[in-house]
Specification:
The complex is a heterodimer of chains A (about 180) and B (about 250).
Chain A lengths: L31 H132 L6 H13 L1
Chain B lengths: L37 H19 L10 H21 L7 H18 L11 H23 L17 H40 L6 H38 L4
Helix pairs in contact in B: 1-3, 2-3, 2-6, 3-6, 4-5, 4-6, 5-6
Classes of the chains: A mainly alpha (about 180), B mainly alpha (about 250).
């Protein structure tokens, strides 16, 4: 912009005839009025823009953001508390379930033991019955065997007596055999 | 910031201050108070930039911000925190005024870094108005809020009694120097940087030194990017400090 041709009419107290500044243009008071006028307008414009639109809006946005962040943190803390709660509930449920399972196991054991006892008692009774029966049968067999032995002994004694040529009196032999067998 | 400063004669001619000349943007002629000049155009562009950044950038009101909205929120938070930290809760009321100053200066500074751009904040006319506005507002506010006890700002009650009149004189002088330093600091920094870039650009016409000149321009440009922001920040933070004095004048 320095070498742009400057009209002769512009030349004056502040600009030399060659278009160059005389001294400091800042100190050329011919130009102050113009700058001050436009500066005041610019400042008023900026002030109106800021105070009417920009600053309230940005302030609101910042406040909203702070609010949102606070709310989010509160919500996060809520959720965290809920998570802890849920964990506690889960632990409790787990403990309950474990206790329940143990109870069921104990119940089942008791039930099985009862059944088993009943079955064992029944089996014992059956065994006892069977053995009593068997003992009775054995006793019978033994008794009949003894009887048979007596009969066989008497018969044998009669035969022996007959074979020896004696005349055996059945009554006497019987009495003798019975007496021997008792002895 | 045009770089073609070599004169028509072929020798090196420097016109580092020509970039600050105010001239009509449309046509030519006298610069009257209402004329649309290059300064007007770049102030207007600064307003547009503020509008684009803070209004268009935040128009979606997204909870999860876009890039533009992030920058807008960053600027808002930056100035808001500055006002709140320095002036306290009562200062928040004046946040829009301070934000206006900051956004105007920062946008004008950065737009002025575009090659061939004009920088309104390099002119004392602009910075003096800004500084005087702060000075007058703070002074009036101090008296309205505190009445005559605002004058206790100059009466250092923690100093020994004998020293207090002298300190009061020094405090008074420093109080009235505030707008001067406040305005010259900003315009001086911006003007100096731009002028130095222009001087380096003048040397770029010499083949032997042009690489160094271009390096120098690059380095100065980087520095100017920093200065653009830092000076806007300094201007704003000083405004906050002065405002704090008006709200709480007791040392």
């Amino acid at each position: 912009m320095a070498t742009e041709p400057i009209d002769i009419e512009m030349a004056g107290t502040c600009v030399g005839p060659n278009g160059s500044a005389i001294g400091m243009p800042q100190l050329c008071f011919d130009w102050w009025g113009n700058q001050i006028f436009w500066l005041v307008l610019a400042l008023i414009a900026i002030y109106l823009i800021l105070s009417r639109v920009a600053l309230p809006r940005i302030g609101a946005v910042l406040a909203e953001r702070t609010g949102t962040i606070t709310n989010d943190i509160a919500a996060a803390e809520d959720l965290k508390a809920k998570a802890v709660e849920a964990e506690a509930a889960y632990d409790k449920a787990l403990l309950d379930a474990r206790a329940e399972a143990q109870r069921i196991v104990a119940d089942a054991k008791a039930e099985i033991k009862g059944d088993l006892d009943v079955a064992i008692a029944k089996a014992d009774a059956e065994i006892a019955a069977k053995s009593a029966e068997s003992e009775k049968a054995i006793a019978d067999i033994r008794a009949s065997a003894l009887e048979n032995v007596a009969v066989v002994a008497k018969d044998t004694a009669k035969e022996i007596v007959a074979a020896l040529g004696g005349k055996a009196d059945a009554k006497t032999i019987n009495a003798a055999v019975t007496a021997r067998m008792k002895g | 910031m045009a770089t073609d400063t070599s004169g028509a004669e072929g020798g090196l001619v420097f016109h580092p201050m020509d970039q600050f000349i105010i001239k009509p943007f449309f046509g030519s002629g006298e610069v009257a108070w209402y004329t649309v000049t290059n300064a007007t155009v770049w102030m207007f562009l600064a307003v547009i930039a503020v509008f684009l950044l803070l209004v268009v950038g935040s128009s979606k009101r997204a909870v999860v911000p876009s890039r533009m909205q992030s920058v807008a929120e960053l600027a808002y938070g930056f100035v808001y925190k500055m006002v709140e930290d320095i002036c306290g809760k009562e200062g928040v009321k004046y946040f829009p005024y301070i934000m206006t100053l900051f956004m105007f200066i920062v946008c004008a500074n950065f737009l002025g870094l575009i090659p061939t751009a004009f920088t309104p904040t390099s002119h004392f006319a602009v910075t003096v108005v800004l500084a005087l506005a702060v000075f007058l507002t703070v002074t009036v506010l101090g008296f309205v809020k505190n009445g005559a006890s605002f004058l206790s700002l100059f009466w250092v009650s923690s100093a020994p009694l004998a020293l207090r009149p002298i300190l009061a004189l020094i405090e008074l002088i420093s109080y009235f120097v505030r707008p001067v330093s406040h305005s010259i600091r900003l315009a001086g920094n911006v003007m100096a940087g731009h002028a130095v870039i222009k001087v380096f650009a003048g040397f770029a016409a010499l083949l032997a030194v042009s690489p160094i000149a271009i390096l120098g321009i690059t380095a100065m440009y980087g520095l100017e990017v920093l200065v653009s922001f830092i000076q806007a920040y300094v201007f704003t933070i000083l405004t906050c400090v002065y405002l704090k004095d008006a709200l709480h004048p007791h040392h």
